[in-house]
Amino acid sequence: DITDLINRESEDTQELLTSAGVNKAKVSGLAISASEAATLPRQELLALIESLTAQMRQAAQDLQFELAARFRDEIRDLKKELRAMEVGGL
Predict the structure, then answer these.
(1) CB distance 53 to 13 below 8 Å
(2) Neighbours of 17 (CB within 10 A)
(3) Does the model's pTM come out above 0.70?
(4) CA nearest 2: which of 79, 67, 80?
(5) Which residues make Cβ contacts (< 8 Å) with residue 65, sequence separation at least 6?
(6) In angstroms, what CA-CA distances link 59 with 5, 11, 29, 56, 62?
(7) Of 51, 58, 66, 85, which is most buried with the most CB atoms under 10 A?
(8) Whole-angstrom distance, CA of residue 90 vs CA of residue 27
(9) Among candidates 64, 62, 79, 85, which has minimal Cα distance to 8?
(10) Could you read off the pLDDT of 37-89 as tens digits, one per residue?
(11) Higher pLDDT, 62 or 31
């Protein structure tokens, strides 16, 4: 169900943030394209993922599951971009 997916996505985000040693920076949670994500510095991308994860959790808590699912999808795309950066050594 959607809450299980949200919990798994949150856990994955936490693992990424922990492994990267991210500071709790604040970034606006606006949706961005993959090409825009590729141009963001790694730390900003991590902060954006963290911000969107918090918004996803809040949407789920407010029973706005469609919105939470959109956040989840955006987070997945950003994580793919981040992992591609890590593989590329950026």
Answers:
(1) yes
(2) 17
(3) no
(4) 67
(5) 2, 59
(6) 13, 17, 13, 5, 5
(7) 51
(8) 20
(9) 79
(10) 677 888 899 999 999 999 999 999 999 998 999 999 999 999 998 888 888 77
(11) 62
Amino acid at 74: E
Residues 6 or more apart in contact with residue 11 via CB below 8 angstroms = none
Which tokens hold the place of 83? 């992992």
CA distance 54 to 59: 9
What SS3 string covers 10-60? HHHHHHHHHHHCCCCCCCCCCCCCHHHHHHCCHHHHHHHHHHHHHHHHHHH
Report which of 64, 62, 51, 55 is spatially closest to residue 22, judged by C-alpha positions. 51
Longest dimension (CA), the chain: 39
